[in-house]
Amino acid sequence: MNLDVGQKNEEEEISEIREKPVGAEKGLKKSWTEGKTILIISLIIIGILVVSLGGFFKFNQTTGATIVMTVDELHKLNLEGKLSPERGYLYHGRSFVKSENLWWTVVNVAGTTTKIPLHFGPKEVEMIPITGQLNQGFNAGEQQYVAINPEVQDKYYTLALSELSFNIVKGLNRSISGTCTKENNICDNRTIVSCNNSQGLPVIELALANETGIELLGNCLKISGQEYDLVKAVDRLLYQWYGVMK
Q1: I need a labelling partner for 117 at 20 to 30 A (CA). Which of 75, 87, 103, 226 fits?
Q2: At what angle do helices 155-171 and 30-44 cross, to 10 degrees?
Q3: In this structure, are residues 228 and 101 in contact, taking their beta carbons and an 8 Å threshold?
């Protein structure tokens, strides 16, 4: 799949979030505040902070010495077969290493070598099914619409949205447009779309569900799951987009 993302000024947006005092306005209702927070986090791409802080790992070698190693150094050890399977492995010839609780690999995006960190490695998401088919409308236009349920207040849902949004911006070359699946006071001036009502727009919808999976529904893509399984489903999709998995 070829999603196109225009780069936003994430640093300015993140700076604005930092400057807003959490809970400063006592008159705000809790449900509105929590819902607004989820919407902001999913749209501001907080994963950029993970990348800026990640990339180093304290590796205890046979000597017993603790050495701070970069992800590149870990990849070198991994290719030499010097990491345990819990710290690194090869997947279809591609090196994956774990640093700061994230799995790192290197992919080629539009001719550019790009390092990506995801919460789960490919071996952990292999069994998540992808069913259905997308039509040409999913890749049409410059915008990718990510639809969230404004009534959901769930940390795993927020993490999955952040993981997805960050990677759309970082490596899939498309402008992201945050939308809501239903009317809500935190969705002022937001487009209301879902896989049941996509309005002909290319939509990705995340949903809490008992069954984990990815459904390709014409010009809408629906990712479902609970807790960390929802994050795994997002990572399964991203590995396919990056050409790591089929």
Answers
A1: 226
A2: 30
A3: no
According to DSSP, the residues that pair with 98 across neighbouring strands are 103
Query: Domain-by-domain residue ranges, the chain?
Result: 10-52+125-241
Contact 87, 77 (CB under 8 A): no
The first and second tokens of residue 15, run together, are 């700076």
Nearest C-alpha neighbor of 30 from the set 153, 134, 196: 153
How many other CB atoms are found less than 10 A from the CB of residue 98? 20
Contact at 8 Å (CB) between 234 and 163?
A: yes
Amino acid in the structure at residue 197: N
- In DSSP notation, the chain reads -----PPP-HHHHHHHHHHSPTT--TTS-HHHHHHHHHHHHHHHTTHHHHHHH-SEEEEE-TT--EEEEEHHHHHHHHHTT-S-TTTEEEETTEEEEEETTEEEEEEEETTEEEEEEESS-GGGTTT--EEEEE-GGGG-SSEEEEEE-TT---HHHHHHHHHHHHHHHHHS--EEEEEESS--GGGTT--B-BTTB-TTS-EEEEEE-SS-EEEEEETEEEEEESHHHHHHHHHHHHHHHTTS--
pLDDT in tens, 147-157: 999 999 899 99
Q: What is the pTM of this model?
A: 0.74
pLDDT at 128 (0 to 100): 97
Q: Which pLDDT tens digit goes with each residue over 182-207? A: 988 888 888 899 999 989 899 999 99
